[in-house]
Write a structure and sequence with these properties.
This protein has about 270 residues and is of the alpha/beta class. It is built from ten helices and ten strands. The longest helix has 22 residues. Bound molecules: adenosine-5'-diphosphate (ADP) and magnesium ion.
């Protein structure tokens, strides 16, 4: 199912070493190193613009780093394209929703299965036999995920008519449909109310327990971070300013100062534009 299971697989799922990435003159990541261990829920935290999404884009092959290396399950994947990273068992959700409008909830989740379609099969004389079997197997997994994520009632709705909170849940379901070994979530609770946040937190914890998936989550709700993360890294201006257990790391004076700085800057902006 997953292409590469390295012989020396130990408990390190992801190792990033000295990651640097610039955009023009802006250094978005200035040498970030971190390890994620098997079975962890690992939090990537930090004020807006600190480099969290860029880090995930480097790991998943969307942006090649200017320096540093990315190792996944013991394999160097630093320059691999996104689809190649996905085939190694990585699924992600995006900070801005990336669902297909006009398609149903069910069909959007089915798209999560496409990472497993083998190009060689398309060339096969017996493609249609294979395709039918594959389709049935995919359906079964998708039905399972729909039940797991409690999306039965809206499975046939076009995604654009359902509320934002549920759309985020569909996106998480699509990522789980790929049956990832490593799941990366970029602000999965953005724009959600307390009840919706608790639902998603529960799904994330259950996914780890029941589906043997390691999770990296970008999150700025500190209550969520302390409730579900085993370890976190806090970024500020592209550098790690604290790491460790969540309640200890977020109490670090450098972290408090970084968040206060952001609030002060926001007040300043509001003041300047009003
Ligand atoms: P975060 O996810 O922590 O809010 P990002 O990783 O999105 O932060 O952004 C880090 C910095 O890099 C920001 O200053 C942002 O404007 C810049 N940046 C991110 N992506 C791009 C891009 N594609 N082009 C130019 N600048 C970018
Ligand atoms: Mg971001």
């Amino acid at each position: 199912m997953v292409d590469h299971v390295p012989a020396n697989m130990n408990d390190t799922v992801l190792r990033c070493a000295g990651i640097e990435r610039s955009f023009g003159g802006l250094k978005a990541l200035k040498g970030v190193s971190l390890d994620v261990h098997r079975g962890e829920i690992f939090g990537l935290v930090g004020p807006n613009g600190s480099g969290k999404t860029t880090m995930v884009n480097v790991v998943t092959g969307f942006y090649p780093p200017n320096a540093g290396s990315v190792t996944l399950f013991g394999e160097n994947i630093t320059r691999l394209a996104p689809h190649a990273v996905a085939r190694r068992g990585v699924a992600r959700t995006f900070q801005n929703l990336a669902l297909f409008r006009g398609m149903s909830v069910l069909d959007n989740i089915m798209l999560g299965r496409h990472v497993h379609t083998r190009p060689s099969a398309l060339a096969s004389l017996f493609y249609w036999v294979w395709a039918l079997r594959e389709e049935l197997a995919n359906r079964k997994i998708v039905e399972e995920i729909i039940e797991f994520m409690q999306l039965q009632d809206i499975r046939d709705e076009p995604v654009e008519v359902i509320p934002m909170g549920l759309q985020k849940r569909v996106e998480l379901a699509r990522a789980l449909a790929a049956e990832p070994r490593f799941l990366i979530l970029d602000e999965p609770m953005a724009g959600m109310n307390q009840e919706e946040k608790e639902y998603i937190a529960r799904f994330i914890l259950d996914a780890r327990e029941e589906r043997d998936v390691t999770i990296l989550i970008i999150e700025h709700h500190m209550d969520v971070v302390t409730a579900i993360c085993d370890r976190i890294v806090v970024l500020s201006y592209g550098e790690i300013i604290a790491e460790g257990r969540p309640h200890e790391a977020i109490a670090d004076p450098a972290v408090v100062a970084a968040y206060l700085g952001q609030r002060a800057a926001a007040r300043h902006l509001v003041g300047a534009t009003s």
